[in-house]
Automatic annotation (TrEMBL):
Domain of life: Bacteria
UniProt protein name: Peptidase M4 family protein
Origin species: Bacillus cereus
Gene3D superfamilies hit by this protein: 3.10.450.40
Length: 88
């Protein structure tokens, strides 16, 4: 039943998580992609609606990453945001 009531996550809201990590001076190479997914917690096997956000940006170093947001309350479920790398 909990899986039936997701919140909506806009691209602007998705960007806020990225701005929080890298600051407001980043430039997006592509618009973040937001997809609805089902997240299964590895610890307890519980399934949750989630949003998967994938992005590419310049900070000025190139960064790309993916993170998962709980669709019920907006909490971060899984964060796969690297600290950044230099592109040669």
């Amino acid at each position: 039943e909990e899986l039936k009531k997701p919140i909506n996550l806009s691209k602007d809201e998705a960007k806020q998580f990225i701005y929080t990590k890298y600051g407001n001076d980043i430039k997006f190479i592509t618009e973040p992609e937001v997809k609805e997914v089902i997240f299964v917690d590895e610890n307890n096997g519980q399934a949750k609606n989630a949003y998967q956000v994938t992005f590419e940006a310049a900070t000025p170093n190139y960064v790309s990453g993916t993170y998962l947001i709980n669709a019920q309350n907006g909490d971060m479920l899984k964060n796969i945001l690297p600290d950044g790398c230099t592109v040669e």
